TrEMBL record, chain A:
This is Peptide/nickel transport system ATP-binding protein. Belongs to the ABC transporter superfamily. It comes from Geodermatophilus amargosae. One of its GO terms (biological process) is peptide transport. Keywords: ATP-binding, Cell membrane, Membrane, Nucleotide-binding, Transport. Coiled coil: none annotated. GO terms for cellular component: plasma membrane. Pfam families: ABC_tran, oligo_HPY. It comes from the Bacteria.
TrEMBL record, chain B:
It comes from the Bacteria. Keywords: Cell membrane, Membrane, Transmembrane, Transmembrane helix, Transport. This is Peptide/nickel transport system permease protein. The keyword Transmembrane applies. Its main location: membrane. GO terms for cellular component: plasma membrane. The chain crosses the membrane at residues 97-119, 131-157, 177-197, 235-261, 281-307. Belongs to the binding-protein-dependent transport system permease family. GO terms for biological process: transmembrane transport.
Amino acid sequence: MTGAGTDALLEVEGLAVEFATAQGWARVVDDVSFTIGHGETLGLLGESGCGKSVTSLAVMGLLPPRSSRIAAGSIRLAGRELRGLSESQLSDVRGNLVSMIFQEPMTSLDPAFRVGEQISSVLRRHRGTSRSGARERAVELLDLVGIPDAAQRVDDYPHTFSGGMRQRVMIAIALACEPDLLIADEPTTALDVTVQKQILELLADLQDRLGMGVLFVTHDMGVISQISDRVVVMYAGQVVEQASTEEVFWHPQHPYTEGLLACLPAEHGRERLRGIPGLVPGPLDLPGGCRFHPRCHHARAGLCDVTPPGLDEVHSGHRARCLLARDLELRGIS
Amino acid sequence: MIRMVARRLLALVPLVFLVTLLVWGLVLVIPGDQALAIAGDSATPEQVEAIREDLGLDDPVPVRYGRWLAAAVQGDLGTSLYTSYSVTDALADRLPVTLSLVFVSFALAVVVGTAIGMLAANQKGRLTDRLLTVTTSVGLAVPNFWLGLLLVTFFALKLEWFPSGGYVPFTEDPAGWLRSITLPAVTLATAVAAELARQMRASMSDVLERDFIRTHRAKGLRPATIVRRYALKNAAMPVITVAGLQIARLFGLATIVEIIFNLNGVGALAVDAVFDRDIPVIQGCVLLITVIVLLVNLVVDVSYGLVNPKVRAQ
């Protein structure tokens, strides 16, 4: 049963993820919905602990099996429900139709195996490629992600690669089976700014060539503005704003997004960097009403601390979880 | 790789030299007069003096050591004071027994210990893990002479599956060899298997938490492949070091097991020699075991390099 008329690549609907704690199950992702079209890049934005990585791991089916569970919702890939698939069915999807690259390139590659082996193992697993065929393809892939002397480097071990080069190897592994969807979880956070730019350019270029959809998870507004078509902003486990990248940057409709934008250093500004006061609440001590109200300087007593807001459409294609969205004049970037 | 082995072999030379000094030094430290020991209680002082002359015991210490070392380098470790057999021949006779025992035990301990450790790490915190942890604690705590007697009583005397003692050379009867070595090897392997299981459990559960395991899962590799191929190679690195030390321990523990199972190995020979104050035999046994342990450590270091690419590169 697919949604009538949808041709979305990935549809996440009403996703709720819970983790086991001493006080019972804590809901760390609550009612999260978004879609990604073929060839589209969706930016998933939020501070540490807002649930963005958990959301992406849920899509991959990589949540820790005993200490976490998907409590509600559905995850459909090209119309096929992934929630409830067995581990073995999921492993047929992972690395094949959906791939993932991670935040820590220094530790994400296996130190005991040659990079060529780590790439060709995916091909042998999903494509049944022969050993020599997979090796040839590994060289091609290393070349594709811009590793010089790929034919020699294929036999090297990860410790001989720099952080940026290791992330390129990770990308080669992820793209080996030409997946429909690539999930990139903070892929540039651990890298130098110059290397960061190269990796972003590489991802954008490969996406153009291969036409895959990308879920780009980050806390970095600057990175989001460069790479994504649409943005989903998460706060305390919920989606608080969802719109095209331009809309979010020029006309934010949620005070949290406004706060994040204010954290960006202005191009020629001498203004001091601003932050958002306070911390993201943990899943076990969420405030009543709007989850953001204790940190929001627009919050109205008697309203925001009482009524939980829904994720409503403010105008076409632009949703925000704020009771005051229609009343507030929020500042985007100028 | 070959250069590394050559360099390590070269480094063994001064070490072995040092060992010969210590081994030979035994003569000077052990109380009692060798000549008197050989001559017996009823000998006249002249007879004792003749024996002393004969053995060159009155020469200066460096000369005596030099004479011994020159002979040892040529494979002559002297003559037993009691049986007048050549020590080298006695060792050559006994060595296959000890080597069979130690290496079969070691292989058994590695296979069983690794399997238990991997299983426990995979089931960490669950019932299987807890049962295996209790089992390995018992394995570590049981004294091997007691375990040996227990195995003999049950499997040799009651069920009569295995002989209760004695050694059948492999070249004579391979099946008989295996039967004669099984109970001693199990006895000797138990403590080491338990130790390796604990090390493997710790190492494997650490490896399974690492980021690259998540990468392998994200690639869609099957859980069994991830554990057996990728995690095992990573987890093996610290365990190999421990395993190397265990081989030295096995040679020590083998002595007791050889006596329990009436195996005429180097350990049993050494014990007899100690009771008899048969110094050339003691020297020969200690020197042989030391050299074997040093060589085994070299093999361990080389195999460590095989699994750890960072070591190999140096």
